[in-house]
């Protein structure tokens, strides 16, 4: 890129401060966040891994995407206590379905009473399993091909590309896959030496994923700096 264009791109400025983030949350996100989602945040707050929950501002965009594609049949990889799951369940229609996969049922059960209180548990098929084998199982039945409207992937970063390959068959053309944590704590733009040890494996997987997604002609893509980075992939063929 020419130097002038580079300067113009960076001077647009993303989030410059915590105050600006709070401003977005308090002005546009929290006032519209459904009460039951606030409650899931509350019941998760004391969990030692509470920061794994989907950021409410990213969730707000995901709800819009679900509405835009009229999502009815969806899949979620990585449930934790259920913030993104409840968000999806509240957004899709009454006869919508979510296949929700997580290796850990215990954390799902932390949020489950809130999901039940919200009256949307009938839309959820929770599967306690690692996700790759579930996707492979789905693909054994050709009826599942092109049948999903929406997928949210938020677990097991090293397998994101493997999930993507399978989701490109399971999603219909016009369906959307959203990948979370695609900026991996900002490490994707750090030099090797700056990256904390515990983030190295995920960083390499994220760098590889981001490059491969950018090269994938099957999708229209947007890499959005919300939360820890989300990448929206719209299957175009
Ligand atoms: N989307 C969730 C939310 O909004 O709260 C957060 C998900 S959290 C970042 C990641 C979850 O993935 C954890 O609950 C973990 O148990 C699960 N997980 C890790 N490896 C997995 C795998 N191979 N297959 C399925 N789930 C997995
Ligand atoms: Ca995440």
Automatic annotation (TrEMBL):
Transmembrane segments: none annotated. GO terms for biological process: methylation. It comes from the Eukaryota. SUPFAM superfamilies: S-adenosyl-L-methionine-dependent methyltransferases. Its cofactor is a divalent metal cation. Gene3D superfamilies: Vaccinia Virus protein VP39. PROSITE patterns: SAM_OMT_I. The keyword Transferase applies. The keyword Transferase applies. It holds the Pfam family Methyltransf_3. InterPro entries: Cation-dep_OMT, SAM-dependent_MTases_sf, SAM_O-MeTrfase. One of its GO terms (molecular function) is S-adenosylmethionine-dependent methyltransferase activity. Belongs to the class I-like SAM-binding methyltransferase superfamily. Cation-dependent O-methyltransferase family. This is Caffeoyl-CoA O-methyltransferase. It comes from Citrus unshiu (Satsuma mandarin). The lineage of its organism: Eukaryota, Viridiplantae, Streptophyta, Embryophyta, Tracheophyta.
